[in-house]
C-alpha cells in the first residue's frame, strides 16, 4: 500500500442524492448537479461520477508525466492525455476500467511509452487503482 509520509493537501466533498443529486466542494465554491448517463437510465446531459473521475485521473496523470519527463529528458509541453473510464456490471454490483491514451507530439512512440509507463508508476490515481481497477496506459501517434 502506498501511504503518504505526510498529508500536504486534503479536499472534502459533500454529496447528496447519488447520481441524480448534487456534489460540492464547499471550500472551493464548486457544486455540480449530477446527471446519470443515458446508459444508466438518466438524461446524460451533465456531469456524473465517471466523467469527473476521468477528468481527475487525466489531470493527475499528466502531472505525473511532468515528473517522468524530467527524469527522462522528454518535453511534454503539448501532450494530451485522453482518459476513458468504463463502468459495467460485476457480480451484484458494478466495476470500473480505465484506459489512458497519451499523445506527445514530436516524441518517438517507444520513448513516449517509456514515459507513460513511468508516469503510471508515479501517478497517485494509478497507485490508488492498482490491483483494484484494470488500467491500460498507451502512448499513441495521434488522438
From TrEMBL:
InterPro entries: KH_dom-like_a/b, OHR, OsmC/Ohr_fam, OsmC/Ohrsf
One Pfam family per UniProt: OsmC
SUPFAM superfamilies: OsmC-like
Single GO BP term: response to oxidative stress
Gene3D superfamilies per the UniProt record, alphabetical: 2.20.25.10, 3.30.300.20
Top-level taxon of the source organism: Bacteria
PANTHER family: ORGANIC HYDROPEROXIDE RESISTANCE PROTEIN-LIKE
Record-stated family: Belongs to the OsmC/Ohr family.
Protein name: Peroxiredoxin, Ohr subfamily
Species of origin: Schaalia dentiphila ATCC 17982
